[in-house]
């Protein structure tokens, strides 16, 4: 056989073999994992439409009114019930002329995690462009609280929680390079540049308490204030960071989640609801196996295609409840077909109802807890 033919044969055969393997095994490569023990109930949730897209987080005020949600055009909206609907409450940027309800415009800001301070009624806002901001109980234009920690700019403030006893605000800075509009690149790049920051509301000092995280997304404080938990979307890990007591200054893995986590909310009993953007599957595990692999796919594919692959070709919704003591997963709820919920970014339990935010959807959702917990 001529040398040229010997060289060309494997070159021609390789893509053919790859195509055949892909054709026959594509479903198992891309399809989301099937998880035992989940309750298929999220499709039963009630949908509450919004005058805007992307309610990434939700919160209730001191009077129990709300929920309040932040949307893509930089506004914070307040739900006034079925008759009154949604009203504008606040916004993170005075530049409103070019804002879009369906697309993120950096100059308009992008409110993400929301946390009311119970002492003052101030609403703390993690904005994906400007940093941590706050607005008073009457709403209006929010003011900047912190946009730097230890000499480094806060690029991607994501979710936070308040220790009322210590007057401390803990929050995630998810990237040192990308803002919210490039959120998917933070995820796929594999870069471990996320930070957890402790902001002293009295001294105005911002200190990093954990770093080198792969897209740290959600964050919540324990019921007794002894530790903070934060999740890495890129690894599915939930970390516990001790901030008080004999273990203060140390951290450990709290649990591993069956998908790519987003926001975290503590329940009245001290457990945590963690929203999963989607379950994992073989292809995302390959893409996230090494930063070079992720960056290769970033260059080769459009963002929309990557999102499609990471969702297993089928956007869906899932949330898990984690024990605040042991890290054990107590509940797993899902809408595996995405009939009602997709891209769930937060689950918030309150007064016998479970409220859901969804980062790409034009609505929020609410489900009676009796649907999945007869007790």
TrEMBL record:
Record's GO cellular component terms: vacuole
Major localization class: other
Domain of life per record: Eukaryota
Start and end residues of each Strictosidine synthase conserved region domain: 158-246
The keyword Signal appears for this protein: yes
Cellular location(s): Vacuole
SUPFAM superfamilies linked: Calcium-dependent phosphotriesterase
InterPro entries: 6-blade_b-propeller_TolB-like (IPR011042), Strictosidine_synth_cons-reg (IPR018119)
Keyword line: Glycoprotein, Membrane, Signal, Transmembrane, Transmembrane helix, Vacuole
Membrane-spanning segments: 7-26
Record-stated family: Belongs to the strictosidine synthase family.
Protein name: Protein STRICTOSIDINE SYNTHASE-LIKE 8
């Amino acid at each position: 056989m001529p040398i040229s033919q010997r060289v060309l044969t494997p070159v021609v055969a390789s893509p053919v073999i790859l195509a055949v393997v892909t054709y026959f095994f594509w479903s198992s490569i891309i399809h989301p994992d099937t998880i035992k023990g989940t309750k298929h109930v999220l499709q039963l949730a009630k949908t509450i439409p919004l005058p805007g897209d992307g309610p990434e987080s939700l919160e209730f005020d001191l009077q129990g009114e709300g929920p309040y949600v932040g949307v893509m055009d930089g506004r914070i909206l307040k739900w006034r019930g079925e008759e009154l609907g949604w009203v504008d409450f606040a916004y993170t940027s005075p530049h409103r002329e070019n804002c879009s309800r369906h697309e993120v415009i950096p100059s308009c800001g992008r409110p993400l995690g929301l946390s009311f301070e119970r002492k003052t009624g101030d609403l703390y806002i993690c904005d994906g462009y400007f940093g941590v901001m706050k607005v008073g109980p009457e709403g209006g234009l929010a003011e900047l609280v912190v946009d730097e920690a230890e000499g480094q700019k806060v690029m991607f403030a994501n979710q936070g929680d308040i220790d009322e006893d210590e007057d401390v605000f803990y929050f995630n800075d998810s990237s040192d390079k990308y803002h919210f509009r490039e959120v998917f690149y933070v995820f796929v790049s594999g870069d471990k540049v996320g930070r957890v920051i402790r902001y002293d509301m009295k001294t105005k000092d911002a200190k990093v308490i954990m770093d080198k995280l792969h897209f740290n997304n959600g964050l919540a404080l324990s019921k007794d204030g002894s530790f903070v938990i934060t999740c890495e979307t890129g690894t599915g890990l939930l970390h516990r960071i001790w901030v008080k007591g004999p273990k203060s200054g140390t951290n450990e893995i709290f649990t591993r989640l069956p998908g790519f986590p987003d926001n975290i909310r503590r329940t009245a009993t001290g457990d945590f609801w963690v929203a999963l953007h989607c379950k994992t599957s073989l292809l995302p595990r390959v893409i996230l196996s090494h930063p070079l692999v992720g960056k290769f796919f970033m260059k080769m594919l459009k963002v929309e295609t990557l999102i499609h692959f990471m969702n297993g070709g089928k956007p869906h919704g899932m949330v898990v409840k984690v024990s605040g003591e042991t890290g054990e997963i107590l509940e797993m709820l899902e809408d595996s077909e995405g009939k009602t919920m997709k891209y769930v970014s937060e689950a918030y339990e309150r007064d016998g109802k479970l409220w859901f935010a969804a980062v790409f959807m034009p609505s929020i959702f609410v489900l009676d807890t009796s649907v999945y917990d007869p007790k």
